[in-house]
Design goal:
The complex is a heterodimer of chains A (about 120) and B (about 110).
Chain A lengths: L2 E5 L3 E3 L4 E8 L9 E7 L6 E7 L4 E3 L7 E6 L4 E6 L8 E11 L2 E7 L3 E6 L1
Parallel strand pairs in A: 2-11
Antiparallel strand pairs in A: 1-3, 3-8, 4-5, 4-9, 5-6, 7-8, 9-10, 9-11
Chain B lengths: L8 E4 L5 E6 L9 E5 L6 E4 L13 E6 L2 E6 L8 E8 L6 E3 L3 E5 L1
Parallel strand pairs in B: 1-9
Antiparallel strand pairs in B: 2-6, 3-4, 3-7, 5-6, 7-8, 7-9
Chain lengths: ~120, ~110
């Protein structure tokens, strides 16, 4: 059974960089066909896809965050990382990592971490 | 349009059938997946690809698609189905992924 666990600071100061790690257990992050994504959810609001990465390093980011976000993988540690620079209060959210599978016409997130709340303070 | 549009709220009587829809130009080319989220919990995949259910998802959940609209149908809604539901797919360009705004389902 695949398990994902997010970790990182729960409080980040405005204008600084948010850094989160997702440790994957119960399976290899290098599994063929597996993408790894980050999704966030501001308090009381809906889900927002941040971006995804293939284990080989190919990345895909949502346009609104493209200039501030970096997603990377460390296959030796079986983990995925998220960095978001120049954060503001609007970046306060629960951040989830998830595994994505799919093909050209469909993708879906089948395993999710429990999520971690990150609050941006002024 | 680069959006996936969902009705903010839908209600259904216990045991009745309800459909939750998701509209977007990208749905003409790409399938949606559907997620159920209960308060304080991570989302759970309920439908993916044409009409596939992960292991453990009751068969009262089904999916369909026509034109620019994807639908999640719950046949015989149960009290435990009360939750927020989100669709996920690509925009018309195929370059960007996105979630719908979510639908809050109330079971009366």
């Amino acid at each position: 059974q695949l398990q994902l666990q997010e970790s990182g600071p729960g409080l980040v100061k405005s204008s600084e960089t948010l850094s989160l790690t997702c440790i994957v257990s119960g399976g290899s992050i290098s599994s063929s066909g597996s993408y790894w994504g980050w999704i966030r959810q501001p308090p009381g609001r809906g889900l927002e896809w941040i971006g995804s990465i293939y284990y080989s390093g190919s990345t895909y980011y949502t346009p609104s965050l493209d200039s501030r976000v970096t997603i990377s993988v460390d296959t030796s540690k079986n983990q995925v990382s998220l960095m978001l620079t120049s954060v503001t209060a609007a970046d306060t959210a629960v951040y989830y990592c998830a595994r994505a599978l799919g093909s050209s016409s469909y993708y879906y997130f089948d395993y999710w971490g429990q999520g971690t709340l990150v609050t941006v303070s002024s | 349009s680069s959006e996936l549009t969902q009705d903010p709220a839908v209600s259904v009587a216990l045991g009745q059938t309800v459909s939750i829809t998701c509209q977007g130009d990208g749905l003409r080319s790409y399938y949606a997946s559907w997620y159920q989220q209960k308060p304080g919990q991570a989302p759970v995949l309920v439908i993916y690809y044409k009409n596939n259910r992960p292991s453990g998802i009751p068969d009262r959940f089904s999916g369909s698609s026509s034109g620019n609209t994807a639908s999640l149908t719950i046949t015989g809604a149960q009290a435990e189905d009360e939750a927020d539901y989100y669709c996920y797919s690509r925009d018309r360009s195929g370059k960007n992924f996105l979630f719908g705004g979510g639908t809050k389902l109330t079971v009366l």
